[in-house]
Protein: dTDP-4-amino-4,6-dideoxygalactose transaminase
Amino acid sequence: MRKIQMVDLKGQYDGIKDQVNSSFQEVIENAAFINGPEVQQFQKDLEEYLQVKHVIPCANGTDALQIAMMGLDLKPGDEVITADFTFAATVEVIALLQLTPVLVDVEPDSFNIDPEAIKKAITPKTKAIVPVHLFGQAANMDAIMEIAKEHNLYVIEDNAQAIGGNYHFKNGETQKTGAIGHIGATSFFPSKNLGCYGDGGAIFTNDDDLAHTIRGIVNHGMYERYHHDVVGVNSRLDSLQAAVLRAKLPKLDSYNEARRKSANKYSEAFKGQEDIITPVLLDKEDTHVYHQYTLKIKNGKRDALAKHLQEKGIPFGIYYPIPLHKQKAYTDSRYNEADFPVTNQLVQEVLSLPMHTELDDEQIEYITATIKNFLDT
Ligand SMILES: Cc1ncc(COP(=O)(O)O)c(C=O)c1O
Structure:
C-alpha cells in the first residue's frame, strides 16, 4: 500500500508535471515574476470558471479577507458577524481592522454558520456577515442573503475551503460559491482544493466600483503610479504560482469529483457504525467539495480513536479543537456559553480523515477497517 498522507501534493503533481515544468521554465525565461501574463491569464480563466465579473489575485487567503473588508470601507467599531467554528483567519482580519468580531454558533449537520444565530446577533452596528463554506460545503446562502438584504448588510464569503462548489438557490438558480455575496475571498494554500506551490489568494466580486477600489488597495492604494489615494497593502500573486493554478484550474472539477468519490466510499464503509456520524450532505452532491472529510465521533471516543490512529500511522486532523470565542485573542465578555452549544460539542467530536485527489481504494479500506475495528472492540 502507498504511504497514507493527509494530502498528497506530489502524487497530484505527477499528473500535471509537464505543463507545470514548461510554464515555470517560460516564466523564468521571460523574467516577468510579478504581474506577468500568467497572472493576468489566470485571473481571466478564474473569472470565466466562477462566472464572476472580477477576480483580483492577491498574496494569500487571509489577505483576501482583509482586503475585502478594507474595500467595503468598514469603520472601527462596526460589527461583523462570523462563525465561531472556523479557522482563525476569518476573525483575525476583522479584529486587525479594529472592527468588532461577533462570533455566532453553527449548525450541527453542515458545521456552517446558523442563520438563526445571525439574526439574533444583529445590532444597529452590524455591517457585514462572513459565512465560511466550511470543509467544502456551501453555507445556507438563501437565508444569509435574505437576512443581509433585510438589514442592509454586506456578505463576504470565505470560500477558502470550497472552491468549485455550487450553490442551488430555492428559486432554481445555481451559482459558484464565492461568487454569491458582495465579495468572495479564497486561498490557494497548497493543500486547498485549488492550491498553488506557495501562498496565494484571490478576491471575487461582480461590483465594478468595488473591484476598482480593491485593485488599488492590493497595490499600495495606487490607482495612478505613485499617487496613493487610500491606505493600501502590498498583496500579489506571483507568476510562478499563477502558472501552477493555470495548470490545475481545468482539472478542478475532476479533482473535486475524485474527493466526492472518496468521501462516498468512506461514508459507505462507516454505515451502521453507532459511534460515527458521517458528513451530512444538505443538498445535491455538487454543493460539497470535501476540502475535509470530517466525522463526528460520538460517545466520548474521539480522543481515544485519535490516539489509536496515531499509533497506526494514519494521519488525521482535529479541525478545530477550540471554539474561537474561547481563544485568548478573541474572548469577549459579551459572549454567553449558552449561545454556543453546537460549537462547544463539535470541538470534542470532530475528526478529519485523509482527503485528497490521490486516495486509492486500498488506503480507504485500510483507514476505515482500522477505525471500525477500534470502535467495535
Ligand atoms: C476558512 C479559511 N479562511 C481563510 C484561510 C486563510 O488562507 P491563507 O492560509 O491562504 O491565508 C484559510 C486557510 O487556511 C481557511 O481555511
Notes: The chain has two domains: 9-250, 252-376. The pocket of pyridoxal-5'-phosphate is lined by residues 60-62, 86-87, 89-90, 132, 158, 160-161, 187, 189, 199, 201 (CB under 6 Å). The mean pLDDT is 97.
